[in-house]
Amino acid sequence: MLDLTKIQSIAQSYSPQELFAALVWQRQFNQFDGKHVITDLASHTDLWVSFLFTKPIFAPDENSLSFGGVIDTLLAMANYRPMPETSIMHFVAYPADTLYILTENQDTKVSQLLDLGKKWQADSVEVIDGTNEDYGFRLQRRLKTRLERALWGEEVHQDRDAVIVTYWWD
Q1: Domains in the chain: how many in total?
Q2: Closest of 130, 150, 149 to residue 139, by C-alpha
Q3: Would you give the end-to-end CA distance of the chain in angstroms?
Q4: 43 in a structural domain
Q5: How far apart are the C-alpha atoms of 136 and 134, rounded to whole Å?
Q6: pLDDT of residue 118
Q7: Which top-rank group of organisms is this from (predicted)?
Q8: Cis-peptide, bond into residue 60, ω within 30° of zero
């Protein structure tokens, strides 16, 4: 059931970024500790402009793995039930395992974000900048075009290039 009064209150009180931060905060598995990740991101807001926590997105997606991740997320959300910590029954938590961070294409920022990936013990850390050969020429070109001058400045000539740093935990 959706409590519209509660939803309205949440929507007026929190940004989409804060909602994703809450999802990261409550997630813990293997080497991943969401509270630690969010604490570090809150301490280093100069390194990133936004982030998204979800299942991995594959391109090209020949085996429908990305769609499988969407299905996993929909099922987990459908089957979620809030349970007290003392309960022996626990339902599937939000099943994200991949963190995407959008940042300015600046060596010092990217380098520090890569270092955070080591600190967080991510199994894989990658920088997506539109030159990644894994994505094929067409997608590479589209990504590069989307990331060029993607971060708006106060004036047009102040726009900055962006990259995405991805972290994946097994």
Answers
A1: 1
A2: 130
A3: 32
A4: yes
A5: 6
A6: 97
A7: Bacteria
A8: yes
pLDDT at 75: 65
Comparing 64 with 144, which gets the higher pLDDT?
144
pLDDT at 101 over 70: yes
Adjacent-strand bridge partners of 52: 100
CA distances from 90 to 25, 66, 84 (A): 17, 25, 9
Contact 68, 74 (CB under 8 A): no
Stretch 124-133: mean pLDDT, rounded? 83
Q: Which two tokens stand for residue 73?
A: 């997320």
Helix (H) or strand (E) holding 108: helix 107-119
Task: Decide if 148 is inside a domain.
Answer: yes
Q: Is residue 48 part of a domain?
A: yes
Residue 47 belongs to some domain of the structure:
yes
pLDDT for 136: 63
How many residues can be counted in the chain? 170
DSSP string, 49-77: SEEEEES---SS-TT-HHHHHHHHHHHHH
The domain in which residue 141 lies consists of 17-62+96-168
Pairing relationship of beta strands 32-33 and 124-128 according to DSSP bridges: unpaired
SS3 percent helix, strand, coil of the chain, rounded to 5, is: 45, 20, 35
